[in-house]
Amino acid sequence: MKQQHGARDSDTRPCQCPERCAFQARLQDLLTRSFSEASLLQAATNPVSDTEQRPLRVPKLAWVEEEEEGPGAAPAQEKEEVVPFKPLQEDAAVERTQEQQSSRGLFHRTAQLVCKLIKRIREEETSTAGTGLRAYSHIFKTKTSAALLDMLVEEGFCNPKQVPAMVRYIHQWLTANQFAEHRLNRTLLDLTEAQPADVLVTLLRVAPSCDRAALTMWKSIMCSPRTAEPALLILLDVLGSWPEHSMCTSDGDKTGVLALAATVVMWKILQVPCVPHMVTVYFPRLFVHLLFQVFFTTLDMPEEVHTFWKGCQEQYDLATSPNRFAVRTLKSLLCRMQHEDVVVAMEAPACGWDTLLCADTHHYAVALLAREMSCVSISLCSRIARYLLRLLRTQEPRWELPALAFLAEVLEFLDLSERGAKRVLQILSRHLRSECRERRRLALRALLEFTDEPSMTKKMWSLTESLVELLQDADGEIVSMTVMLLSFIILDNDTLIPGPITLQLVEALLPLFDHDNNQVQLLSILLFRTLVTLPQKKEKKALKTPLRQSLLPLFFHCHDENRLVAQVSQETLLCVAEFLKRRDLEKQLKNKKLWKFTECLLAEDTSRAAEHLCRALPYLRNPQESLRAAAIRFTAQPQPRPLPRQRRPGLAPRSPAWARRCCRPLAAVPSGGSVRRGPG
Question: What's the whole-model pTM score?
Answer without folding.
Answer: 0.69
